Amino acid sequence: MIRIDKRLPFGFRGEWGKVYKSYVVDEAQNVDDELVIQWQRNYYQDIGQDVQFKHLEDGQDRRIEYGQTIKNLVERGEYRFAKTTDAYFDEEIKAYKCVVSLGDVINLGGEWYVCDKIDVHNIVTPQEQCFYYLGLKKIFDKITIGV
Questions:
Q1: Rounded to whole angstroms, how far apart are CA atoms 147 and 131?
Q2: Residue 137 vs residues 34, 72, 80: alpha-carbon distances, Å
Q3: Does the global pTM surpass 0.85?
Q4: What is the pLDDT of residues 90-123, one digit of tens each?
Q5: What is the CATH number of the domain that holds 60?
Q6: 16 near 49, Cβ under 8 Å?
Q7: What angle do CA 60, 19, 62 make, to 5 degrees?
Q8: Is 5 domain-assigned?
């Protein structure tokens, strides 16, 4: 279980969402079915804590560069940019890491996304503040809840 360090800077107002991480079914024998989803033959487990995201619109501190393909997805509403400050301390590498990883499934505002890009921007020092800029591709496939 990941324990999230909530380090919200002044003025960071976002939307609460849920993050689901991939896992092997055999590893989670006692998982509450309400915390599990299935997407494309993979199982994902809710990390158990809400994560705050802030959507980024055109011209608003976007850190992620994107090519023509992503630009087209953005224009059609199939791709979103968001940022979060929610992190956890990884004891193995002795550093903070974004609570969202590449390939995680995110439920945000009733819509489903998969994270396909993460860009980190440190303010002063990593211990004081990190912004994680995320590229979120909308999921149109069926998501099964409570497997």
A1: 33
A2: 24, 12, 7
A3: no
A4: 889 888 889 999 999 999 988 999 999 998 877 6
A5: 2.40.10
A6: no
A7: 15
A8: no
